[in-house]
Amino acid sequence: MALARRSSSLLKPLSTASSSSFLHRRPFSTDDTTTITVETSVPFTGHNCEPPSRSVDTTPKELMSFFTDMALMRRMEIAADSLYKSKLIRGFCHLYDGQEAVCIGMEAAITKKDCIITAYRDHCIFLGRGGTLLESFSELMGRQAGCSRGKGGSMHFYKKDACFFGGHGIVGAQVPLGCGLAFAQKYRKEDHVTFAMYGDGAANQGQLFEALNMAALWDLPAILVCENNHYGMGTAEWRAAKSPAYYKRGDYVPGLKVDGMDAFAVKQACKFAKEHALKNGPIILEMDTYRYHGHSMSDPGSTYRTRDEISGVRQERDPIERLRKLILAHDLATEKELKDIEKQARKEVDEAIAQAKESPMPDESELFTNVYRKGFGVESFGADRKELRATLP
To answer: Which spans does this entry mark as compositional bias, Basic and acidic residues (predicted)?
Structure first.
């Protein structure tokens, strides 16, 4: 693939509302709302729709929060890698490092009343929805303090109060569920949308097209987000899909191709998609992104792609480094201050891991909870169907 060799310019600053204030750097303030206009790294490409503008407004506050949050996500995933290798995390574990700009940009464009549902690469999306590091690491290690009480593990993070309806292990199965959430939003006449996220490896699933057909028939506020990291497990997209232009795959449904390594491009695209979906029904967003780790922790990630390709993407398109350069270009922080933010992220992650290790494993009784609806007096028998083991509430 020519992916790693493709040139990609840095986010270009176009203008600043008070340009003179940036001639001499002043201490960063979390209340700094001076308008900065940046240009997305590459143009949007539309299918059956007019693409949005490449010019995106931001503020020093947002720039710094993007950098801080993405640094925390990156550190969390690197730590999860170590915990898995130490056998403190068991089962499946799919890491998100490299793709942080997608969830960061998405959150900047929507509210916590908009729904998100995704596949099993879900740790950072949970964090973006307001989840904590303690809940994340506890869930990864199967502890009671986890966001799913330690029963879901890496693939099944969940946060109902922030409308995050989880990670799902069955490839593509979350898309019909996401369209169901969008149906509920329209039925209730809510002014909200649902983002149903899937990877390029799931883009050929029949259920995806069936759900999209119904969403289009009923003009549901559903936004299908294909996180195209170019490899479904160990198979390159060009070997798996006759048409890897996933933003066009909806045919009669509009689509937009987005640089998923550019947080501001994602923000602009998601804002555009939400406005479209509320008025006109579903739309597809293809996020052109990249994962640094393998498909899962059992995949070294280097047998079907070269190390030069991975390092090339890191050097040219890394979402955190793009933000670093933009912050330095606007003199919002020094290199040392940004390094300090990354050190603080490492400290917070280490502290959360220590706390998670102290959390106990779920009690055996948890095997019977969240399976049947309460109040039906369900009985649990032994294998011979004679010995009554328990009557569930």
So the answer is: 305-315
